[in-house]
Amino acid sequence: METHKAKVCIVGSGPAAHTAAIYAARAELTPILFEGWMANDIAPGGQLTTTTDVENFPGFPDGILGIDLVAKFRKQSERFGAKIFTETVNKVDFSSKPFKLFTNTRTVLAEAVIVSTGAVAKRLSFPGSGEGAGGFWNRGISACAVCDGAAPIFRDKPLVVIGGGDSAMEEANFLTRYGSKVYIIHRRDKFRASKIMQKRALSNPKIEVILNGSVVEAYGDESGKGVLGGLKVKNVVNGAVSDLKASGLFFAIGHEPATKFLDGQVELDEDGYVVTKPGTTKTSVAGVFAAGDVQDKKYRQAVTAAGTGCMAALDAEHYLQEIGSQEVELGQVVRATPLTVYNEVSRSTPVTVYNEVSTSTPLTVYNGASTSTPFTVNNGESTVRSYISKCSKSNGSSKRAKLDEGGTFSSSSNTKSNVEEQAMAHPIGVKSSKGEGENLVTKATNEENVATKTTNDERESNSRSRLENLWALNERDIAERNKLSRIELLRSLLGKTEKLSEKEETLKNKLIDEML
Ligand SMILES: Cc1cc2nc3c(=O)[nH]c(=O)nc-3n(C[C@H](O)[C@H](O)[C@H](O)COP(=O)(O)OP(=O)(O)OC[C@H]3O[C@@H](n4cnc5c(N)ncnc54)[C@H](O)[C@@H]3O)c2cc1C
């Protein structure tokens, strides 16, 4: 078993999956895509691999074979760096993050998931319904009236729709544009379609209904071209079999969305489709998105699947940006490598530090003294705070320590140092708002992070030497330094041209009181 980490993992291989992959890859989210291996008996590439000409996908004025179209989708995903595995995801674990997806040979730990596993149009099986020799699948028999209805072989010919629901009514109505006549064959004595849909279909003069009917055989036409010529229809009540001339047969008996592998971990509707928040691709699990036919029982077209694939990639991208900031808010950034944080020279404007999860999510780090010497803090756990408490403990007194010039510690027995206030108020990894104690500010860049990585041992030893420095400091010097630092702080507050925040105002007044 191999384990991979991915920002985005996409499951599926139709237009939805590949559009999501193209967008995610171009957004540098380096997606992993599982295209499945005969998942739900469909080849990688999805439903379009089961059809011949696709005439309604924009960009192909002369039409394109379904199989060629999906090959182009795949090539485009790969071109932008999507990593494609021809494996079926058979298990997921969305109970905690990172999400886990399992195939027979690998596991992916993903921050976001896009489910685009499509749906399978249900088909009936009887002699002549198949794809091989003697079968008329794609040669008169189809499962998509909207996709295939306009084909020349159906023009002005008798057509048949099998089904009794809304889709059957809608598809029959649609086919009346092309066929000379449309029969709806249903095996029960009444339809389950809504009254309005039934009314619309049954009032169409080109539609004729055959109830209690079941197609038992399809046969070819007299031309010998191997296209559909007619059907044998059995009356399920009296068993009589009649002949019906038809050049087209369309199954409208529903679709089976490919959601079993989700094992109920995402909300599904009563027909098994993934429920998405209207206008988005968000599912009931934050960070899991759904696109294409797996969440769409209305449009079910390649171009709509592609459209929602695009939406899912954009939704995932926004989500990743958001969790970046949430993790900062919650201080949950997982990063063992220390960041190096530099003081700002001006010390008046807070600068931003980027965390590791999302470089677009800024956080602000405050220092307690002015210095041009770098010092290190850990991202993630509030290491500044832990340095302080470590220091206070070793000191054996209630005195608190602060980061002093040059990155050494000093202690103060009377008032809380600014760094302590800031560190306690905003432990590293917690975003602070601009304006809260702007006197001392630190800055880091990703390049600096990389350039100044230190090991834990080095950090420990730095800490120890800082502690020793601390002990060596003369109490009076410390008080003096502290006073100076507070004067500087007051000066910077008094020097600010913009209106002070409430906290700054309080701090300023407190400092003035102390000075007086
Ligand atoms: C016969 C037919 C003809 C059609 N003709 C047209 C047409 O001319 N024009 C048009 O616009 N639309 C047409 N459609 C509809 C169109 O094919 C679908 O709307 C579209 O393919 C849906 O795309 P999708 O990305 O949602 O998923 P799908 O195309 O359904 O692909 C999903 C893929 O995910 C894979 N998968 C499933 N489960 C897993 C798993 N657990 N792990 C990994 N992979 C998995 C499946 O194997 C499948 O390959 C036709 C459909 C059919 C059936």
UniProtKB/TrEMBL annotation:
GO terms for biological process: cell redox homeostasis; removal of superoxide radicals. GO terms for molecular function: thioredoxin-disulfide reductase (NADPH) activity. Binds 1 FAD per subunit. Its EC number is 1.8.1.9. It is an enzyme of class 1 (oxidoreductase). Residues 391-420 are annotated as: Disordered. Coiled coil: none annotated. PROSITE patterns: PYRIDINE_REDOX_2. The keyword Zinc-finger does not apply. InterPro entries: FAD/NAD-bd_sf, FAD/NAD-binding_dom, Ferredoxin-NADP_redctase_2, Pyr_nucl-diS_OxRdtase_2_AS, Thioredox_Rdtase. It catalyses: [thioredoxin]-dithiol + NADP(+) = [thioredoxin]-disulfide + NADPH + H(+). Its cofactor is FAD. Residues 7-309 form the FAD/NAD(P)-binding domain. Pfam families: Pyr_redox_2. Keywords: Disulfide bond, FAD, Flavoprotein, NADP, Oxidoreductase, Redox-active center. The keyword Flavoprotein applies. Residues 408-417 have a biased composition (Polar residues). GO terms for cellular component: cytosol; mitochondrion. PANTHER family: THIOREDOXIN REDUCTASE 1-RELATED-RELATED (PTHR48105). Belongs to the class-II pyridine nucleotide-disulfide oxidoreductase family. Homodimer. This is Thioredoxin reductase. It comes from Brassica campestris (Field mustard).
